[in-house]
């Protein structure tokens, strides 16, 4: 019982100590408004820089991941190009043969455990015309009907082209949401004829609205059967580059699937055992890993740049606290001569530094929140997010900076000899 009473009494003493130290710190900050403002400014800029960079990178990462959510990360692109870094020299890659439609037919008929496959031709921007409307540099993708399943495309009006239309190269086209709006306005697009490649194509479908994402949004794309384009554009070694897109069945061992695909395609191309592959097997999971790597680098660079701002803020607080100790040396001597303990003086200055840093951090967080709110309103279909994790990080960083910046000045103040302090202050 005696031990409990002593513990309670000790806690009350410390609570009173904290309260009085906190009151002294607040009064000191109120009495030096300009100096307090300048100290706040340094921490505010530092916290704002770090959290703004992290919020921007997190928002970019989230929007990219959201745009890839509808895609199977195991989707494979069989082509002469590598989607990531490779040790194969460029001159050797340029000699690789193009992946053509015959290669697609071989893969489709000879590789097991494929849920869907498609042949795509990589092309540039095209001009689309409808009556008086002309859209230039539109990404028109020649691709077989399997892409509808692979990319999990959704149709808002009409339909996607069928396997028969794809194989016969029917002159049909499916438009992205924004593309259809720009061409037809309030009119119904289905059944209308537009000019692409200098030829007439019939609009049979319009995609759902997707919004911005990784690369060009489907909203501003168009899809046509690959065999339609093959009728008038050359393939082969010197023709348009192509790729076979493959979506394996769910639950398949991807490593084994890739190994079988690679081995059978090598045999199909007549490669000997000692010869290197003349093609690349690219997976979307590799693209996701590359995106994560880039996001990590961006985070690192942002931290390096922002920490300099935060260090400047910390040094500013430390400098102000040393000045404050010197100005109040006489007061410290009087307090100690009246019985103030060292820890009272220590807490007084630590609280002052911490309050400066925390308030500066909160102002910085407030500015980032306003920035994300305004930026989200200005950017169509791109949401800037200030996550609770980043807010907690900003608050924690500002608190730590305040404590670190105030330790040395607080220790110096608490160790002053009362007689010398009064004499020096006078």
What does this structure look like?
By secondary structure, the chain is an alpha+beta fold. The protein has two domains: 17-67 and 290-425, no CATH class; 97-278, no CATH class. Helix content is 57%, strand content 15%. It is built from 14 helices and eleven strands. It has helices at residues 2-31, 33-68, 90-94, 101-110, 147-150, 163-168, 177-184, 226-230, 254-268, 284-327, 329-337, 342-378, 388-414, 418-425, and strands spanning 76-79, 114-121, 125-130, 133-142, 155-158, 172-175, 193-196, 199-207, 221-224, 242-248, 280-283. The strands form two sheets. Strands 3, 4, 5, 6, 7, 8 and 9 form a seven-stranded mixed beta sheet that branches. A hairpin with a 2-residue loop joins strand 7 (193-196) and strand 8. Helix 2 packs antiparallel against helix 10 (284-327). It starts with a helix and ends with a helix. The model has no long low-confidence stretch (mean pLDDT 79).
